């Protein structure tokens, strides 16, 4: 700990420091933070203080503990988890409209702000979607694409708001099939692959309006697939059919 503040519990100070490091990008969303033992040594505090700090950040929605696998960053601020809780009972159509607005604006901004690193990450995400051989790997690659798109906007708040709405996770749960059905499913989703690629092409062309329109086409196709999945199987409850 660089500085110990009197009358402030060490666990609170540790939590605040980790919160700042997450917000500054040292621990990006999806990354695993150091172990309790390593943080204890690094910060010079007791293991109990570190454990309490991590517990508070899990409760706040910034971290998620995975049994036997460590603790992972799920948000860069309390905004996304808080918004997600507020939207749990919102109309699905309203949430879908908000997501469309956020991704359209993200694509529009990315067309003028995306760096070579951002573009490379989008290309990698497209390649991972194409190479996916299972429903789980495809869903993970598709989620990564949408996160990379928001990152490319250069606006951290847009990304937080998008994560707060649930992003595209619920649509993926409804549309991504079991592995036995995956090959057939991928045949039907080729137009969606083209739509994702069109978004990246427009961003690379530095054409904001074309990028925004491409996102609208992409999301429209995704919603159509989600509707077909609901009709064929019924809504997914708890991520299972």
Largest sheet: 2 strands, antiparallel
Q: Which architecture name of the largest domain does CATH use? A: Up-down Bundle
Widest sheet, order of strands: 1-2
Topology as a string of helices (H) and strands (E): HHHEEHHHHHHHHH
User: What name goes with the CATH superfamily of the largest domain?
Assistant: GntR ligand-binding domain-like
Sheet/helix structural class: mainly alpha
**Nearest-angstrom radius of gyration?**
20 Å
Globally, the shape reads elongated
CATH class of the largest domain: Mainly Alpha
CATH topology of the largest domain: Four Helix Bundle (Hemerythrin (Met), subunit A)
Helix count, per DSSP?
Answer: 12
* Whole-number tally of structural domains: 2
Helical residue percent band: 55-70%
Given as residue ranges, the uncertain stretches (5+ residues, pLDDT < 50) are 234-241
Annotation, overall tally of beta strands: 2
InterPro entries: GntR_C, TF_FadR/GntR_C, Tscrpt_reg_HTH_GntR, WH-like_DNA-bd_sf, WH_DNA-bd_sf
Protein name: Exu regulon transcriptional regulator
Keywords: DNA-binding, Transcription, Transcription regulation
Organism: Luteimicrobium xylanilyticum
Sequence-ordered SSE layout with sheet pairings:
Layout: H1 10-23, H2 36-43, H3 47-60, E1 63-66, E2 70-73, H4 79-87, H5 92-113, H6 116-131, H7 135-152, H8 156-164, H9 169-175, H10 179-188, H11 190-204, H12 208-233
Antiparallel strand pairs: 1-2
Helix pairs in contact: 1-3, 2-3, 4-8, 5-7, 5-8, 5-11, 5-12, 6-7, 6-11, 9-12, 11-12
InterPro entries: GntR_C, TF_FadR/GntR_C, Tscrpt_reg_HTH_GntR, WH-like_DNA-bd_sf, WH_DNA-bd_sf
Pfam families: FCD (PF07729), GntR (PF00392)
Domain HTH gntR-type: 8-76
